[in-house]
Amino acid sequence: MPVQYGLQPNPATPDPNDQSARVITTKNRNEDYIAAQMVQRGVFPTAGASLSALITIQEIIGQAVADGDAINLPLFTLRPGIQGVFTDVNDTFDLARHVLRANFQMGPLLRELMAKATVEKVLGTDAVPHIVSFVNENTGALNATITPGGIGQDRGEQLKFGDADTEGPFFVNLATNVATRATVVPKRFEGELMFLCPNLPPGQYRHEVRRLYGGNKDQMRIGHLNVILTVA
Question: pLDDT, tens digit, for every residue of 153-196?
Fold first, then answer.
């Protein structure tokens, strides 16, 4: 299946007619899909055995990177990195100012596959923030928990927002419907947000990114993470 894309105004260039591509992901695949594919290809006899092996592989790779090692595979390269500013040569790592993270690069196999991929332009698609994943940087949990006052990371598409106080990452309490905004967002890109999670009370939350569109920035559009998050 070709990679589908639509066009949207390009904010990075001065020409108002310039457009940039927005890739539209048609499906979100997870471990169950990969496990089923391995059974279908005869690698494992059952989905349970396949899923168990896949989980083990992920744990081994994750732990190796967390231990300071680089993982070099045909599909990708993973290596640990540190994000943040160090004030001088005597400064040291500080959780309040720095984030330990993993850096991803395409490997030769993925580059080869992407070079062979085809594309298809899709018309009439509305621009909207799309949150693929939320990472609790304090615990490493993916799409699961929020640490109040901790560091959160969103990955996805069209996540970069403007300066209005109605925009940005929000957490909506499902019991009270109260929406709380993350006000400190030091990293703000189309594909990634890094922010301090607000001090939320225990409960279940819908995570949103709100963004204003249009020439006058008067069209509010909201993207939702499709998983409910929890504050214990």
Answer: 999 888 999 999 999 999 999 999 999 999 999 999 988 999 99
3-state secondary structure of 17: coil
- Four-CA torsion 118, 122, 128, 130, nearest 10 degrees: -30
pLDDT digit string, tens, across residues 1-47: 899 887 766 767 777 677 788 787 777 788 899 999 999 999 999 99
Q: Is 91 helix (H, G, I), strand (E, B) or coil?
A: coil
Q: How far is CA 169 from the centre of its chain?
A: 13
Question: Which amino acid is it at 198?
Answer: P
Architecture of domain 130-231: Distorted Sandwich (2.70)
pTM over 0.70: no
Q: How far is CA 63 from the centre of its chain?
A: 20
Residue range(s) of every CATH 2.70.50.70 domain in the chain: 130-231
Longest CA–CA separation in the chain, Å: 57
How many residues are there in the chain?
232
Say yes or no: domain 3-120 is CATH 3.40.1190.10.
no
Residues of the chain within CATH 4.10.520.10 domain(s) are: 3-120
Pairing of strands 151-157, 192-196: antiparallel
What is 156-177 written as a DSSP string?
A: EES----S-TT-EEEEEETTT-
